[in-house]
Amino acid sequence: MSDESSLASVIESRLERLSGGSSWGCEGTVSQFAALEAAGFTPAGQVFGATVLRLGVIENQPRCTGSRNFTPRSDLASAGGPFSALLRRLNGARRRALDRAVDECVALGGDGIVSARLAVTTVEAGVMEFSVTGTAVRARSSIRPAEPFTAHVSGQELARLLEAGWMPFSVVFGVAIATRHDGAGTRQQTRIRRGAAGNQEVRSYSHLVNDTRRDARKQVGEAVSALGGEGVVVDEMTLSISERECPTNEGESDHVARAAIHGTALVTFAGAGRTGPRPPLTIMRLNPAAPLEKRAGLGVPAVAAEEPDQEELAVPETRLVDRMVARNAAWRRKRDPFTNDYQNNRNSGE
Predict the structure, then answer these.
(1) Quick one: 63 and 150 in the same domain?
(2) DSSP labels for 257-315?
């Protein structure tokens, strides 16, 4: 029996066990479980999907993006760069792990996956594991989705999105790989110097990082558009940079940047969320005697303020004993040599 057939049989037996089980599990806190119940979903069980990928030949048609004197551009894998084959493998590994988690959700009778987390772990040199974990949920409704939805949002976040009229329906990701040659300008800018001359921007690295992140963001946007989504909420953005020997210029090097963005695509649905304008914010005035027109303009009900009682505003007359005590205290302060009053009176000649 081959490894592929044995792996398929193991996955199939696991799905059979999941479909016949009666207990369920829910990742997260009690608050997330309560939020799912409030949003109309019931946990169906924990799901997991993984695939292990060995990276053999990761470059096709190795070439350099620059020359000895300048670096004209970043070579993007999405545009047919030397790492285009590696990019396809990384995207395929992520999709395979997510598909296996969805298969477990279907076996549990779930309608979607929430709190889906994608992890990329290095097993050994050249071997990486891609795994997806989450909680399968079942909608308490007679209307069932045609396919299970996937979302990285938690139970509380799912309830808030539904209240606002947004429905998460698919986990999306954008991966970008770019290379850039370390030309003479880069070597000069990265040379160790003293003083202010050592604090300067390495323009080649800045271009590489910006180009890679921008391409990853573009891949996410294209994935959302292909699925018919209207927006995306981002879960994680990662960036790693490594160095390689230049394939064409001996003794020189290039830098390779990898960027990945994971998120969930959203779509709006009619008849959900708040309708109509939001009510104005209520502001409590500290001055109860403020004019009515000002209070009405700030969203506070224009209710006439009650006039304070004149007896409450009246200050009682000071008693004779209190006046005598205050006069004696002032006289002692003037005669005390350790007070400012004594020094002021002495300077004035009193």
Answers:
(1) yes
(2) EEEEEEEEEEEE-TT-S--SPPPPPP---S-TT--HHHHHHTT----PPPPPPHHHHPP
Strand runs labelled E in 9-102:
41-54, 75-76
Secondary structure of residue 8 in the 3-state scheme: helix
Residue 85's CB is within 10 A of a number of other CB atoms, namely 16
Q: What percent of the chain has pLDDT over 70?
A: 63
Query: Model confidence over 57-85: pLDDT tens digits?
Result: 666 666 776 655 444 688 898 888 888 88
Q: What's the pTM?
A: 0.66
For 255, phi then psi, to 5°, come to -115, 140
Per the structure, the complete domain to which residue 295 belongs is given by 279-306
Question: What 3-state DSSP class applies to 59?
Answer: coil
Instruction: Compute the distance between CA of residue 28 and CA of residue 36 in angstroms, rounded to an integer.
Output: 11
Is 114 part of any domain?
yes
User: What is the spatial distance between Cα 313 and Cα 114, in angstroms, rounded to a whole number?
Assistant: 62
67 and 189 part of one domain: yes
Distances (CA, A) of 114 to 141, 212, 264, 314: 17, 29, 10, 66
Residues 195 and 289 in one domain: no
Q: Give bridge partners of residue 127 from the DSSP assignment.
A: 54, 124
Calculate Rg over the CA atoms of the chain.
35
Q: How confident is the model at residue 233 (pLDDT cuts 50, 70, 90)?
A: very high
Q: Which residues contact 42 (CB under 8 A, 6 or more apart)?
A: 36, 137, 138, 139, 140
**Is residue 169 domain-resident?**
yes
Three-state SS at 174: strand
Count of domains observed in the chain: 3
205 in any annotated domain: yes
Q: Is 273 within the bounds of a domain?
A: no
Q: Return d(Cα 102, Cα 260) in angstroms, integer.
A: 22
Amino acid at 156: Q
State pLDDT tens for residues 206-219: 899 999 999 999 99
